[in-house]
Write a structure and sequence with these properties.
alpha/beta, 5-stranded parallel β-sheet, 50% helix, 13 helices, 318 residues
């Protein structure tokens, strides 16, 4: 259901084992410590509702699992797009027992009427089933919302999340640590050079780095090798169509199209040539290429930066 969900056996069991996201981890540890101290003093309120904001693949789902584990609570996960009506939201909330945690991924995708139902439920701790006279109280629960675009949430809903944690892309060094630890937990041998090659191509995104690690491991096992080497990384990239920066074939084609135009290119032209919706190109492909410093947008259209032009030139010479 949730594309961010990791292999549980290989995931960090507590906040102490989380790699990266130091500010978010400090915020969470402070909130959990305050919650446990309040509980020792007789305050039975749930952990405050949290909002995770950040790009895809940086650990929002994993952190929600850790929170539920730290609380000793049951975690209910749902993709916001699956909640098409207030009644479906009500059904999810009514499943929860006292102290449970509900994780709503991509919560900016909620329809306006569902957002309204959710913020009223968070504010008043009750569900309105057919009007003010027909309502039921909710147990004390914690709702965690995850979003890549907080400004698509209605302001009343944003305000109901008392703690906002902003997750960022990882450094190459952090991804090296993550890749090395994941391989160790899974019992896979790996050379330091292969760790760096995978982490560099991970583009600051743990989910991508782990996917590349798994693909490289398959390549190594196809050779009946006991340890992953840089040669296996190169072979995996050749098989998967991934370049030296970790860009896939669609992203590479985008860059080549912009280069061949020899001037600004309109979004609708790129959408036609790539055969993809404008929203996908603008929200997924371009956002990454701009972050990596390969592409810039002007009033006339899209253009390669100096770094982008050099990268495409390097690809063309291979």
């Amino acid at each position: 259901m949730n594309e961010e969900q990791p292999i549980i056996e290989a995931g960090p069991p507590t906040l102490n084992h989380v790699i990266g996201q130091q500010r978010a981890v400090r915020q969470l540890r402070t909130a959990l410590d305050a919650h446990f101290n309040d509980r020792m003093s007789g305050n039975s309120q749930a952990l405050p509702h949290l909002l995770f904001v950040g790009p895809p693949g940086v650990g929002k789902s994993l952190l929600s699992q850790i929170i539920a584990r730290e609380l000793g609570s049951t975690l209910h996960e749902e993709l916001a797009q699956n909640l098409a009506s207030p009644s479906q939201l009500h059904g999810l909330l009514m499943m929860a027992n006292e102290g449970d945690v509900i994780f709503l991924d991509e919560c900016h995708e909620l329809k306006p009427m569902v957002m309204t139902s959710l913020y009223r439920a968070l504010e008043e701790r009750k569900l309105f089933l057919g009007g003010e006279r027909h309502s039921i109280f909710l147990p004390s629960i914690t709702v965690i919302g995850a979003t890549t675009d907080e400004w698509q949430l209605s302001k009343p809903l944003r305000d109901r999340f008392k703690i906002t944690l902003r997750l960022e892309h990882y450094s190459t060094e952090e991804l090296e640590h993550l890749v090395s630890q994941r391989a160790k937990r899974l019992g896979w041998g790996i050379d330091d050079g292969a760790v760096y090659a995978i982490a560099f191509r991970g583009r600051g995104t743990p989910r991508l780095a782990i996917r590349l690690l798994e693909a490289t491991h398959r390549t190594a096992r196809a050779d009946n090798a006991d340890s992953i080497t840089p040669v296996h990384v190169d072979r995996m990239c050749d098989i998967e169509g991934i370049d030296t920066m970790g860009l896939d074939s669609t992203e590479q084609k985008y860059l080549h199209l912009v280069r061949e135009a020899q001037g600004p290119v309109r979004l609708n032209v790129l959408a036609t040539q790539l055969g993809l919706p404008r929203r996908t190109i603008e929200g997924v492909i371009e956002s990454e290429l701009i972050r990596l410093g390969l592409v810039t947008k002007t009033e006339e259209g899209r253009m390669l930066t100096g770094i982008g032009a050099a990268h495409v030139a390097g690809l063309s010479s291979l």
